[in-house]
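Form 7-S
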Amino acid sequence: MSTLLLITSAPTSIHAWHAFELAQALHQKGEIFHVFFYQDGVQVANSLQWFPDDQRHLTYEWQKLSIRLPVCVSAALNRGICDQENAKRHQLSDSNLAQGFELVGLGELADALQSSARIVQF
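Output:
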């Protein structure tokens, strides 16, 4: 049985951390799961975030899982997050999508919804 983790909470929210902890547990158990970052959840893919040394960095924690990290392209662009391709297309000066994250369309979410037995939204 596969699980979809739909992450809509900003990275500063405790809910975003709960999503990561569930993903980490599923990954360690070898369970099949997918993640999709949407709405304010896309902010985790911003490589320009800064955190003090005494705080864990959610972006880095997701990157350490070494799983596919799809991010809604429209929600990301709306929040000032873009990859090289979209920076060029929209004539922006640079990209700031964190390494390991991937901008995708909502079709990816639809596919994940169809193929998942459970959906957990954070």
